[in-house]
Structure formats: C-alpha cells, structure tokens
Amino acid sequence: MIIKSIVAAILPLMSICIFMVNPVIAKTYKIGVVLPLSGDKANTGQNLLNAIKLSVNQVKKEQGINFELIIKDDKNDADEAQKVAKELVQEPNLISIIGHYYSSTAIGATKIYDQAKIPTICVYASDPKVGESSPYVFSINYSNQEQAEYMAVYIKEIFKKNNVLVINNNNAFGLSLAESFINKANKLGLTIFKQLEYDHVKKFGNEFIASNLPDKEANKNIGAVVIFSHSGSGIKLVKQVRQHEIEATVIGPNPWSTNNFLDEELIDEEMTRDVYVTSPFLWEIGNYRAFKFAKDFKESYKEEPNITAPMCYDAVLLLANAIKENGEDREKIKDFIASLTWKSAVPGITGNIFFNKSRMMDRDVFISEIKDGRFKVAYIQLLKPREPYVFKQKDMRLEKGYLIEVDGQLYHWVDVIFVGVDFFRVNDVNTQKMNFDIEFYLWFKWMSDKIDISQVDILNAFSGTSILIKEDIKRPVKYKCTRYKGSYVNPYDLSKFPFDTQSLPITIGHKSKNSSHIMIVPDARHMTNNPVKEIYPQEWTYIDKNFNSGLHRFDSTFGDPDYRMGKGYKSKIYFSTLTVSITLKRIIFPYIVNLFIPLAIILIIAVLITKIPVEQFVLRSNLSMTSLLSILLYHMAQKNTLPKVGYLMKVDYYFITTYFFILLIIAINVTSTIYIQKKENETAVKVNRRFQFVAIPIILSIYVCISIFF
Predict the structure, then answer these.
(1) Distance from CA of residue 49 to its chain's centroid?
(2) CB of 173 within 8 A of CB of 103?
C-alpha cells in the first residue's frame, strides 16, 4: 500500500514529462501549394516553398494549427497550371490553396478553383483579373493598376519630373502596367516622351535603346524612365539606358525587388545610380516578426528569403486565423477572408491583411532606391490614409502639408529618418531593478527641413547623458551622430533563470509625430555587427545584434481630440519606432558553483539518509529535518539575491522538486517507524529499499525533464 501511495504521488509528475516528449497530436488541415518548382523560375519557386514550410512550422508553434502541404509544380506554365489545379481539387479534405506565382498561371487555374469552391490565396499575382475571376480567390499582393498609378504620382509630386519615357514588354503584365500608368500620367498632366514596347518572348537586342532613341540631344529632355518588365529584362534595359547616356531617374516595378539588381556581376552601382523600385514590402520597415522570419529562414535554408517570402507567411497566417474562427468549412473560410476590413484586419508581418473589392490585399506601395548595394527605403513615402479622423480633418491637414491630394486621392506625406546604433560597452545588467546601463553611438540621416531631429527620443530611457560627436545639416541628406550613456528600462523574462538569454533593447521613436508623418528605419548598411567585448558584470557573453522597425501605441490619448472621433471609437494612432538590441547569454559556470553544487550536496545527504538502518528513527528524522531546514534557508537566501517576479523561474522548479523529495523521505521515515512499532521490521526494510529503487530514479528523471523542457 505504501509503495502504491508513493507511485501515485509521483505519477502525475511523470505524466507531465511524458506529455512534454509526446504531446497530443492536433487535427491536421490539408492545403495545396502550387509554385514553379522547375523551369526558369524554379529558384524563386523553391525559395517560396521554403518560406511556406517555415511559415507552417511557425504557425504551428504559435497557434497550434497543423497543416499538411500537398505540393504541385505548375512550371510557370498556364496549361500546366490548369492541369495541376484539376488534380488538386480532387484531393480529399483539401481546405485551401496557396499559389500560383504569376498572374498568367493563376488566371486559368482560378476558374477550376471557383467551380470546386476552394478558397485560394495567391502570394504574388498582381493582375486584378485574378481576384475578380472568382469570389474564392484572393491575392496578398496589390494590383498592377495601383502600382502603376502610384509610380505616376511619385514622379509628378516627389521627383518633380516630366517627359517620361515608358518601356514595357508586350505580355499581360507589361501591357496592363503601361496602360494604367499612361492613363494616370495623362490625368496628372505628365508628358509621355515616348513609349517603347518589346516582345517578351523574342526579347530584345543589345541595341534596343540606341536604335529606338538615336537622338542623344533630344534624350536629354527625358525626365524619368519607367520600365515595366521582370528583373532579368530590367537589368539589361537599365544598362542600355545608362550606356546610351540617359541620366534620367529610372523607376521599375516590384519584380525588380530581387538580389539580381544587387549582384555586381550583373549590374554595377554606377548603372543603378538614381534607380528606384516599388514594392509591397521592404525588409527595412519589417516588424519584429518579419525580422525573426528572415533570421529563421537564413538559419534553416542557408539563403536569403526573397521579398515575396514574408507574404507567404501572411498567407499561411491568414488561413490559420480563418480556420480558428470557422474550422474546415470552405465557405466560411472564404467569407471570413472576404469580410476583413481595416478595423478587423489580421496583423501580418508585411502589413494588416484585408482586401479591396477586387480581392487584392489593400496594402501600401513602398518605394526604395538601389544604393550602397541594397534596397534603401526612399526618404519620402506616400501612404494611403485609412483613419476616419484624417478624412474629417482633411482641409487642415492639406494646409499643414501632412496630406497631399492627387487626382482625388489623398496620401500621407511620410518623411523617412534613417537611424543607426552601434553598442560598445554594457556597464550593468540589473535583473532585479529591470533595467540596464549601456553606452552606444546613435546617428540620424534625414532630408526634410520639416524634421526636428531633437524630437526623436529613446522611448525606454530611464536616465542618461549624451555628447554630440558630429553634425552636418547643410547637405541634402542631413546627418547627426551622438554618443549616449544611460540606464534603460527592460522587462526581462527570467523564466529560464539561470539558463536564460536576455535581449537589451534601445527603442527610438518620435515624441510627437506619428507614423502617418514620420517613418523610422534602420541604417542597416552602416551599422556594425562587431561583438560587444566590454560587458559588466562579467556573467554575460555576447551572442548577436538585432534590429527591426515597428509601431508603438502610447497608453494615453494625451487629451488630443484626434484620438477619439465619434461615439465609442478610438483611433488607431501609432508611432513609428526602431528597436536595436544586443542579445546576451548568462554564463552558467558561476551558478553551478554557487547554486547547484550546494543544492546537490543537500540532495546527496537526503539520499544517504535512506541508507541509515530504519531502526534508527531519531537519527533519520533529525537528518531529514536538517535537510529540509537547510534547503528552506538556502532557498530564502537565494531569493534575496534574485529578482522578484510573478512567475516561477527554472531554478524554482529545482527547489520545489527537492522539497518534494525530502518530504517523501520524511514520509518514509514515519511509515517505517509505524511498521517497526508493529514488530514488522522486514516490511519496514522493504518499504525503505523499494523507495530507494523507485523514488530516487524518478526524482532524477524529473530533474532531467526540468532541465530539458521547462
């Protein structure tokens, strides 16, 4: 009976360990994935497939939803796309489909998905016909029309250019972009210098620009060159434009957002000078989840994710949210996706996910400049306002220059500030007071005269001092660098103490201008990744440096009437932020000496008690109580040196297990004494011996489980 009682007491702890090793298997949902996995776009297709696989794993960890991928290769061919679409719709229990890549392959296949009533999410297709072809088909990308019209507005309002040379291929992609651009340009009063068109199948020769634009003197009147092509053709055309001595600003569409344009073997920096690219997403403006996704992707696949990869994550995330709301009902999943609005959007890593009437994602167009071997966010962005209070205050905001109105469309005029941080010394990591002391260089780069850089502050600063290192505000791109030393608030997560890894973040934001006025992005090109060598106290070691953009919302309206417009409505006003952090890992050796060795000694003494003959009750009891008191006093002494947190730390689990073990020993002592008093000495010895063989290995196993899983 006693042994059964002991086992009954220990079994729950064993069950927890077993559960950690063999978790309950959740329901699995089938989704189809169709990408070009062979042919000329195989590398892109494989990159996106890796992104989807990684996304499925991350969503499983975050939301507990399991996806099974049914993968098909459409070879980037319209006929093959329809063939694999017919195969997919026959797959039993298929919940949804992610794919295809290009609009040309998606349009034919979507008719098949429509007939089967399967919700489909395209991660890149930009032809609005894709979404308009079926109420079951959505695209995470924006439309060709929206992108082309934005380019016309940017050339007119930001570049202040006229006489636009338009170059496009003659497939559906190039033609739709060129048509939308020219229509918008005519409305804005832009002059089309000339339109050149090439056959997307036959391509073009090395003299395409020279033969079509022979008059170099007349070419000096070209203010901007717009090229609607994919990246391979775009590289060749940019080269020819520059080789033909056309120095005008060049702007290209989002397919150019690839590493091809950064490859010096394909095109050098002189060729890409004054070249801009539109994009639905830029890594520099990505939030923490986007940064983590990119980091995990590189670690998992040993390559860079392309610009569409995070849109794959958003597609998987969108499906996960739809399934959580509606289970595996296809019709309800489709209705959930279609019902999303700005207020009810699913927060993705490339933006808030909701769709317009054409079932294209209602997202902003961003523009970057190819500079210093990377895509750098342009210093001015035009973003669509969605907040109701902005429209109510339209006239005031237009007057102050916060908004511009172009052809009836309002845009936030957003100035970009590049921020860089280089850490060089950690003076203190105080986990008790939840702060840290650090020294670093902080610099800013900006263009607009409207920006008061003194209003950009460190949001988690507690106290500190700063020294101006260098400043130059006379050039078009202004610059300021300061050396900071101070204390910064940081809510450490100590649940893994003393095996913890901690991040020390510096969060920078503007004091008064929100994200509809100011966008803060990392100056990634010029920040160093050198390890911080001076770290005090010397119980930490440097791991890495991270940075990501984000949005911060203050828990106050500040009494500003802009924050609340109408009954029961609170505006979503966010401030653009940049968080730069270093990751430190606690050095465990001192804790082995100061924490675990004393704990192990007490445990060994407790184990040795079971070796004392059961007849010596007084000695066993005294030693047991001494062990219990020792562990209590030792735990209390340790608690005084540890931070006070509202949850159990890993070290607490070791102490709790030790308490439990010593209490079991005391219980065995009492039980053995009862048997001895009944003259059942053999039974007392058996109980003690079985306890040694059963309880001690189980307790040790629990320690192992704590070390691995908690």
Answers:
(1) 18
(2) yes
